[in-house]
Amino acid sequence: RGYQGIETPTFEFFDVFSREVGTVSSRELYKFFDKEGNTLVLRPDMTPSIARAVSKYFHDETPIRLCYMGNTFINYDKYQGRLKESTQMGVELLNDDSAMADAEIIAMTVKVMLDAGLTDFQISIGHVGFFQALAEEAALAEDVLNELKELISIKNHFGAEELLAKQNLRSDLFEALRDVPQLFGNAEILEKAKGLTRNPAAREALDRLATIYEIVKDYGYEKYVFFDLGLLSKFHYYTGIIFQAYTYGTGEPIVKGGRYDALLQHFGKKAPAIGFCTVMESLMNALERQK
After folding, report:
1. What's the predicted TM-score (pTM) here?
2. Neighbour tally for 78: CB within 10 Å
3. How far, in whole angstroms, is CA 88 from its chain's centroid?
């Protein structure tokens, strides 16, 4: 599909994964010093490394298509049962902010799953702009917002409702935020969500998802696509759609991705971008358990 390979360093400067970039928290990074006293880290995530490389070395403004395979390192708590080193294979599509680009990446995700031999799987798609618009309108305090995100992420509908009930919100806003954890399903859920809010930014996010769905239908992959407006990522650099691919035989998503239109600006180049990574260990586990 015209994606060219790129390799980024295993060691990166700490700033590439700083809090402002919105990636893995500092305490989960493997940190080192070099002879000049610079703080280095083992990369926990490929996307900021590629964003940095593109900002520095790629200067033509046509869509840039890159693919990679490499290892990432996250110093998880030993009780989480997660691997501290994992292999990721993925793609990044840069300098294209269209819904067509979003759909291309979703279609490639479906193709990765099918080519691996999986048949029973789903791609859950959300949009960070929907929840963000509602949260901004509600003007929630940062600690309340973080707690609400956590409750929505684990689909704790009652916990979210209890927290929101203490916030003195307008009734329509309260209902919209309360229902976010339950807004998942097929394309009809987008219309249901639209009926919950008049917020222009939230409705724009829903329109974008509806447009992407129509293009994915042209690929013939709509049966694999579901929507989840409560899908939130711990990576703060996502600005548009986010998605995860699941199948049975593994509790972790096999593919994770999304749009990150502001990330390259952090490294000095203004460019929209979207990509995904396939977590190879999760994929191998699923294939093994599904025989």
Report:
1. 0.91
2. 8
3. 14
